[in-house]
Specification:
Elements lengths: L2 H23 L7 H15 L13 H8 L3 H14 L14 H9 L8 H14 L8 H8 L4 H9 L4 H13 L1 H8 L5 H12 L6 H15 L2 H6 L4 E4 L9 E4 H20 L2 H15 L7 H20 L4 H22 L4 H9 L14 H20 L7 H11 L25 H15 L13
Length: about 450
């Protein structure tokens, strides 16, 4: 190494060590708040070199210093602490320090009232570090895998889930830290975490598709747990003001999950046609299906209605037949799983299926659906026979529902053909960096004070 190169590397080391020392050891007060913000911004600028070079990050000296430093674990913990503390901005009273971070914070204050800018910046830097797929072990990812103090972190995540960097942070914690996942699933107020994600999925558009994907993946991870799938049908939401398709009141969290995921599947299959998206939705529904309980009539109508819409499309479509056929099969398996495991608890679903029994007619002789349709048909025929014996009295909905309720405990469930338990598990893609790296840098460009030329990375 020549003298100039050695000097440059020495300066890089001094700079990075200095930044690390600030973020790790300098307390956050009014006077030091802008110092922390600018230190994070400088860190992001240094890391952004990967956007402007064809070299692998393992060949970049800056990356080697940052990822091989003995302080890397402490830096990761410091960033998590900064995010968790959610320390508000500056009052400037009694302070003579007024820097660029203050000015930018002031200019951005209109959109950052809820979550302090420093906390967002800390999360952005952390997800940039965590999502680097280096040849050696990533110490920042290891920090997320090993932390064990979750209460404040969980609360901070819940109040900041509208921000995409928070959703990414939550994903990595759930995916890599089994203790954190157990902690989250044990929370009695899990709706505080789930409802903002459902809102992100519901309101997703082309510009926020990555946010929707990550929210769906998190939902899929949560539905891998049986107790979660039971709990969501016990939590009742008084209202859901952002759900504009229909006014919802006194709906269970489980019912809301079904509404949002079925709506997303229908929209995606008929318009966006992104197989990855609807596959995750259907996988979450399938995981939940054996624990469906006391579904509202509107929820049942939307679930069965999804099958009806896709069935009509399937019968007249010449393209996308394979994708629609797979979706129809999974929806039938969801219905079958519910009827096999929770028939007594789902009177409204049985009523909805009886009312719409004609939608299954064209599939009875289709080899792709014949076996599963047979199960559903047996259930419907059983209840039809019970209704026929009471047909003179079945003049209104309430009477029909009463017959269903009275007949459900006597249903001979042994008649049904046994199918494997519906169980889907999230598996990270083989090269996740191809998704995550462009995504995290687009977030840095959009939400930090660091300007990056948009042509340098690929957006959604």
């Amino acid at each position: 190494m020549n003298r100039d190169a050695f000097k440059a590397e020495s300066l890089n080391l001094q700079l990075i060590n200095g930044l690390m020392n600030i973020l790790i050891a300098l307390p956050i007060f009014n006077d030091t708040y802008p110092v922390h913000r600018e230190s994070i911004n400088v860190f992001l600028v240094l890391l952004s070199i990967e956007l402007f070079t064809t070299e692998s990050i393992t060949e970049l000296k800056l990356y080697n210093i940052i990822f091989e430093s003995c302080k890397s674990r402490d830096l990761g913990l410091a960033l998590i602490t900064t995010f968790s503390n959610q320390q508000k901005g500056l009052s400037h009273q009694g302070s003579s320090f007024f820097g660029l971070g203050d000015i930018m914070g002031f200019l951005l204050s209109a959109t950052e009232n809820e979550v302090p800018a420093l906390c967002r910046n800390a999360a952005l830097l952390l997800i940039v570090l965590v999502n680097q797929y280096v040849a050696f072990s990533n110490p920042y990812r290891n920090v997320l895998s090993s932390i064990s103090d979750f209460s404040k972190l969980y609360h901070s995540i819940c109040i900041a889930l509208e921000y995409e960097e928070t959703t990414l942070l939550l994903y990595h914690l759930l995916h890599r830290n089994e203790q954190f996942k157990t902690f989250v699933l044990a929370q009695s107020d899990i709706d505080v975490l789930v409802v903002p994600m459902l809102r992100a999925i519901y309101h997703a558009n082309d510009s926020s598709c990555h946010h929707m994907y990550m929210s769906l993946i998190i939902l899929l991870i949560l539905t891998e747990d049986v107790e979660f799938n039971k709990k969501v049908h016990e939590i009742v939401l008084k209202s859901v003001p952002w759900y504009v398709d229909r006014q919802l009141s006194e709906i269970t969290l489980g019912g809301l999950i079904i509404l949002v995921t079925t709506r997303t599947v229908q929209y995606n299959l008929l318009k966006m046609r992104d197989e990855y998206l609807h596959t995750n939705c259907l996988a979450a529904l399938a995981n939940m299906s054996s624990q469906f309980s006391n579904l509202q009539s509107y929820v049942c109508q939307r679930l069965v209605g999804l099958f009806e819409v896709l069935a009509k499309t399937y019968n007249r479509a010449r393209q996308e037949l394979v994708a629609i056929e797979k979706a129809l099969r999974i929806i039938l398996e969801v219905l079958n799983s519910c009827l096999s495991n929770q028939l007594i608890s789902n009177t409204n679903l049985i009523y909805t299926l009886l009312y719409n029994k004609h939608i299954f007619d064209t599939f009875r002789n289709n080899p792709a659906f014949q076996d599963i349709i047979s199960n559903i048909t047996q259930v419907l025929e059983y209840f039809i026979s019970k209704l026929e014996t009471e047909k003179d009295m079945c003049t209104d909905v309430d009477t029909v529902l009463k017959v269903i309720v009275d007949s459900s405990p006597k249903w001979p469930s042994h008649r049904l053909q046994k199918f494997p338990e519906l169980k889907f598990k999230y598996v990270e893609e083989e090269k996740p960096e191809e998704f995550f790296i462009p995504y995290v840098w687009s977030l840095v460009s959009d939400y930090s004070c660091v300007y990056l030329q948009s042509s340098s990375f690929k957006k959604c």
